[in-house]
Structures are given as C-alpha cells and as structure tokens.
Design brief:
Strand order of the largest sheet: 1-2-3-4-5-6-7-8
CATH architecture: Beta Barrel
Radius of gyration: 16 Å
Order of helices and strands: HHEEEEEEEE
Largest sheet: 8 strands, antiparallel, barrel
Shape: globular
Number of domains: 1
Low-confidence stretches: 1-9
Mean pLDDT: 85
Strand content: 35-45%
Structural class: mainly beta
Helix content: 10-25%
Number of strands: 8
Oligomer: single chain
Number of helices: 2
Length: 179
Amino acid sequence: MRLLSTIPFSKNVIAVLIGLASALMAPVASAYDWTDGFDLSSKSGDRWSLIASPYTYHFRPSDDHKTVWLVGAERERANGSIAGAAFFSNSFGQDSGYFFPWGQMYRGVLGQPQMYAQWTAGILYGYRGKYQHKVPANYEGFSPAIVPALGWEFDSNQRVQVNLLGLNAVMFQFTQPFK
C-alpha cells in the first residue's frame, strides 16, 4: 500500500469532488422514491448481494486506528435503487452498523458499460465514548451517513468498488450476488 501513501489527498480536493457530485446528482435526487428502501416486498428484477470489505485506507493514519472490516447485504431494484445493512468494525475497533434504506446505482459511467457510481444514505451506529466526535451529528452513537462510491461490475455480476468515507478514508468493497 506504499503507492497509496504517496497520493496527495487534500481536504479541499475531496470537498470539491463531493460538491461536484452533489450538484450533478441534485436533479436525480428530487425524482428519487424515498420510501422504496423501507418496502421489504420482493419485486421482479430485485437482486440481492453479499457485501464485504477487508480493507480501509485512512488519509491521515493514527495510532488509534484499528483494522476495519465490513460484512452485509444489499438489495438492488430493477430501477437501480439500493437498500441494505452492514455490520462492521469501525476505525477504532468498535462494533458498528450501517442501515441504508436509501441509495441509487448509475451504470455506464464515463461511457464504460461496466463502470458504475452509486450512493447510499442512512443511519450509522457505533462511534461511542471518546470516539463519538469522529463522525458528524453523532447522538448516543447514532449519526446520519452518506456514502458515495465508484465501482466496476464483472460479467459474473460480481463487483468491486471504492467507497468514500467522508474526508477520512476510502473503503474497498467486494459485492457477490446471491445465486
């Protein structure tokens, strides 16, 4: 991972990228069905997948940081909406969870049929005690979260993606559909 440590990450660069992504997604978000993630009924075209992350890269490593891992499940509707839940160990070794009833996948990014962008939004739980201020708007361990991602889908529908975790880290994720 020596190569990653040589990349000059800057809060300003990341903030500009997040701002551009927000501006581009604003028209889409206004048409989004915000109730779909709470609908647990199965619909034609639904695809369920296991998600896992074995590694997270922190932009500013700390002696307090522990190994981060994640496992979970997500459902993608035929219209690209995403919902799911994940269990993970956060950057400080605390058991944590992320419930994301909202999200959307956009395929064919940059003219590449296998490249996609997605976002998920929901509730994060787990940053407690002396680490409660490591995530914004945390109350009793609960905080809102938005996770943008960029990924690649292989012919087998398996995916690899990079999730942006605020201004702090990127998480590398694998997605395996149920058969």
